[in-house]
Write a structure and sequence with these properties.
By secondary structure, this protein is mainly alpha-helical. It has 6 helices and 2 strands; from the N terminus they run ααααααββ. A hairpin with a 2-residue loop joins β1 and β2 (155-159). The radius of gyration is 30 Å and the shape is rod-shaped.
């Protein structure tokens, strides 16, 4: 889940995980002043760390394409069973003689059409619901505060 502590900085590869360290150990490892909790970083130090380490933000999840969504919906054992039945019915419809009086050709063709429409409808509904859920999650994410209160040179300020 995420990058390891030393993945970007070779100097930090031989250390305990950050979450197991005390505040004092963490401040020491990062080479920060001991009065950091009272004064915070200077504006220049914050800018240099931003340039060195990048912004403190979560990485965005890769967007799913429509083809991936369709595959996700049809990659299902029950859909495979329905497709197999549709193929068998299609073979039956094609191989049945046209002069058959029991309408087996029509029945088999109707089964194929019905099965394909059910698979299509199920896929469409699944993609639609997934899209709505993704929009709702994005709306919730946009409602979250995108600013943090920090100490810069002893003063409390809001930063993005």
């Amino acid at each position: 889940m995420g990058k390891e502590a030393g993945a970007d900085n070779p100097q930090m590869t031989e250390q305990a995980p950050w979450h197991t360290m005390s505040i004092e150990e963490t401040v020491s490892k990062l080479g920060l002043p001991e009065d950091l909790a009272k004064t915070g970083l200077s504006v220049d130090e914050a800018a240099s760390r931003l340039a060195k380490y990048g912004p403190n933000q979560m990485t965005e999840k890769e967007k799913v394409t429509i083809w991936q969504r369709i595959w996700h919906e049809i990659n299902n054992v029950l859909v495979y069973v329905l497709m197999t039945v549709a193929v068998v019915s299609l073979i039956k419809a094609v191989t049945t003689p046209e002069n058959d009086t029991t309408n087996q050709q029509f029945t088999a063709s109707f089964q194929v059409a019905l099965i394909v429409s059910v698979i299509t409808l199920n896929t469409w509904i699944g993609i639609y619901q997934e899209g709505n859920a993704e929009k709702a999650a994005d709306a919730l994410k946009n409602m979250l505060s995108s600013e943090a209160r920090v100490l810069r040179g002893g003063k409390e300020v809001m930063v993005p």
